[in-house]
Amino acid sequence: MVFERAGHVVALAENGQKALEYLANHTSPSLILLDMLMPVLDGWHFLQILHGTVGSQTPPIIVTTANPSIGPDWARAHGCADVFHKPIDFDVLLELVDKRLS
Hints:
It is a single chain. By secondary structure, the chain is an alpha/beta fold. Helix 2 (about 15-25) packs parallel to helix 3 (about 45-55). Helix content is about 45%, strand content about 15%. It has helices at about 1-5, 15-25, 45-55, 70-75, 90-100, and strands spanning about 30-35, 60-65, 80-85. It has a three-stranded parallel sheet with strand order 1-2-3. The protein is built from five helices and three strands.
C-alpha cells in the first residue's frame, strides 16, 4: 500500500461501523482518511456519530469523495481538516496526508 511504503502505519476498516468499532477499542489515530460512500454506515453518519462520541478530540479527518459539492468549506463545517476529490492520485494524496501529519 502507498501509505505503508511511505512509512505510515495503516489500519483499514471496510465500512463506517467497523471504523467506529476500531476507534472505540484502540488509541486514537493520528489521522482519519474517510470515504463518504461506504457500505453499512456512510461517511456522513460516521461523522455524526464520531463527533457525538468524542467531540473535539477527533484526529484530523481528510474526506475523500467524488461529489464536487463537497469542498473545503463543507469539510471545515463538518469538523474535517480537508477534502480530496476522486479519482485519487495517490502521490498527491500522500502529500496531503504528510502535510496534515506534520
